[in-house]
Amino acid sequence: MSALLLCLEIVNGWIIDRYQVKTDKNSGILNDCNKWGEEHGNPRYILDLTLSCITVSIKTREIVNELPEVEFEQ
Predict the structure, then answer these.
(1) For a Cys staple, 19 with which of 33, 49, 56, 74, CB 3.0–4.6 Å?
(2) Which residues pair with residue 31 across a beta bridge?
(3) How high is the pLDDT of residue 3?
(4) What is d(CA 41, CA 57) in angstroms, rounded to the nearest whole number?
(5) Phi/psi at 30 (nearest 5 deg)?
(6) What are phi and psi of 22, to 5 degrees?
(7) CB within 8 A of 4, min separation 6: which ones?
(8) In terms of pLDDT, which residue wins out, 31 or 16?
(9) Whole-number Å distance between alpha carbons of 74 and 68
């Protein structure tokens, strides 16, 4: 698996884990990020978050690949 695919898998797993629709057992409050996005005028919230995470991951990978190799004494 390429580093990019692994990175995308981690990002998507993190978003899915954190932003799934669920109800709090104690309070009964529904946690629905889709409704939050609509209430705040951004129904694309999750999509935009996912795209931002992917962009940051790709740019980070590009920067890391351009860093010079460092050798450490043992």
Answers:
(1) 33
(2) 22
(3) 62
(4) 26
(5) -85, 125
(6) -155, 160
(7) 57, 58, 61
(8) 31
(9) 19
Q: How many CA atoms lie within 13 A of 13 on its CB side?
A: 6
8-state DSSP, 69: P
User: Which stretches within the chain are classed as H helix?
Assistant: 3-18, 33-39, 45-66
How big is the CA angle at 16 (ends 12 and 21), to the nearest 5 degrees? Answer: 160
What angle (nearest 5°) sits at the alpha carbon of residue 66, between those of residues 73 and 53? 115
Report how far residue 16's alpha carbon sits from residue 35's, in angstroms, rounded to the nearest whole number.
16
What does the alpha-carbon distance between residue 65 and residue 41 come to, in Å, rounded to a whole number?
38
Distance between CA atoms of residues 16 and 59, nearest Å: 22
